[in-house]
Structure formats: structure tokens, C-alpha cells
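Weekly modeling sync, notes
Attendees: AB, CL, MP (scribe)

Item 1: holo prediction request
CL wants a bound-state model with NAP before deciding which constructs to order. AB pointed out that an apo prediction alone won't tell us much about the pocket. Agreed to run with the ligand included and paste results into these notes for async review.

Input as submitted:
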Amino acid sequence: MLGLENKIVAIAGGSRGIGLATANRFAKAGACVVIGSRTETEFTEAAESITHSGGKALGLPLDVMSKENVNLFFERIEQQFGRLDVLVYCSGTNRRVPAEEYPEDAWDQVLSTNLKGAYYCCQEAGKRMINQKEGSIVTITSMTSHIATPNQSAYAATKGGLLQYTKVLAVEWGKHNIRVNAVSPGYIETSLNAHNFRNAAFRDNVLNQMPMGRFGGTDEIANAVCFLASPMASYITGACLPVDGGFLAGHPNIIMQ
Ligand SMILES: NC(=O)c1ccc[n+]([C@@H]2O[C@H](COP(=O)([O-])OP(=O)(O)OC[C@H]3O[C@@H](n4cnc5c(N)ncnc54)[C@H](OP(=O)(O)O)[C@@H]3O)[C@@H](O)[C@H]2O)c1
């Protein structure tokens, strides 16, 4: 129904969390997913679990901080499949430290993973999609692309930048029949934020401000990514879809007089 059957879909950061749910969703829609990440056991297991369930998947090493490694990842996809229909840029990391103490090595790692890696991957995917005269890219942004929260200066800087980068690609590549969109997840429990979710005060504080009164699931993000990547969204480009239980719309327990 989504029109993704036999499409070649590369997912940077597809080995766990939101990326893994997205890989499973694309596979269920009949796509062939290529899962890239640094941890071999995870990308291998992710691909095997899809193939054991009757889907099509391949796990490949990918470190988005290395241009050479990114180039090799896309060359291997080209050799194996001869085309690339969809890129999902999901690789991401975070370090929470007050701005006045933010360490330079952490700043560099967060920027390199979340933003420069997107540049490497989208450029390699984009070149191939321009040659094919079609393609679709979805980047995973964040609520911090839109609003500020404390102790996440590097993360928010990258996610704000990633959203603008996404829009520029949409504007430049629309003429090549390439759509580029973003999904901004809300609070989704994964290994990225497991320590926050273990904190009852954090959970209560967020839920008190959450219009839908619950956290989201990785599958709910995956559904939005698949929709935007698919022909169902054929006239949508440069858009950002928040999947956040209404958090960006406003907070139910704030009273202004
Ligand atoms: N969870 C949330 O509430 C939430 C909210 C908003 C946005 N997001 C975004 O959603 C995306 C996925 O996050 P998640 O919550 O699913 O976290 P996660 O479970 O920690 O997954 C992160 C993924 O990124 C990969 N990755 C990290 N560094 C990489 C590198 N240098 N090269 C290639 N891949 C790399 C990881 O694999 P390896 O470490 O093995 O490489 C893993 O596959 C991120 O971009 C995150 O910012 C998450």
C-alpha cells in the first residue's frame, strides 16, 4: 500500500532504537533495507532478524564520522543493488552538560555524528539519486530543532542545523525529483535517553506537560518516516513532521492570565 516494495532503503543508525523500528517497518512494506552502524553485532543481528521473518535486509559497517567509511558504505550498496531509493539519516548521539562546561571533545563528537555525518551521507546518496532522477531522504531531527532545553547545547545546535540542511537539500534537489523531509520525534525511550527514563521526576515532569499524556513508541516514529519516504507523500518536500504527542503545540498544564 505504501508503494515501497523492492525499494532499496539505506538507514544510517538502523541497528537499534528508532532506526531499528524504521528498518522493520520498511521491511514489512516490502523494501530491501540496508542497515548501517558501527557495532557489528547489532547491525548483523538487526538484518538477520528481518531476514528470518521473511524480509529483505543487509547489515553493513558505517561510521558516519568518517568520510572514507561513508563512501565505502554507499559504494557497497551501489555494487550490490545498482541503485538507492531512500536514505534515512537516523545516526545520532548526545551529551548533556551545562553550556559553560561543555567539553570540546564532546562538542566535536556530537557535531560530527549528528550534522557532519548527515552531510557526508546525504551528499553520497544525493549524487546517486540525481543520476537516477529520483529519490527520497528523511532525516531524524528532534524537538530541539524547534525549542531549547537545558544542557543540550551541542545536540540542539546540530538538530537545528540538520533541519535547515534538510530544507536546503529539498530546495536544491526538487528539480531532480528528490524529496527531502524531516521527522522530529518527541520523547521516545531508547538507549540514547534510558537514564532519563529511569528517573521518575523526569517522567512526571514531561508527562505533566504532554498533551497526549504518554510517551511515544519507536514504531510511531517509524510509521511517519515510512510515510514521508513513500510515494504516498509524493508532493511533500522540505517538510518537518513532529511526532511528539502534541508537545511542540503547547503544554496543557501551563496557565497564562
Ligand atoms: N529517543 C528519542 O527520544 C529521540 C528524540 C528525538 C530525536 N531522536 C533522534 O533519533 C535518532 C535515533 O536515536 P535513538 O533514540 O534511536 O538512539 P539509539 O538507540 O542510541 O540509536 C542511535 C543509532 O545511531 C547509531 N550511531 C551512533 N553513532 C554513529 C556513528 N558514528 N556512525 C553510524 N551510526 C552511529 C547507533 O549505532 P552505533 O552506536 O553502533 O554506531 C544507533 O544505531 C537520533 O538521531 C536521535 O537524535 C531521538
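Recorded for review: The mean pLDDT is 98.
Action items: CL to compare against the apo run; MP to circulate these notes.
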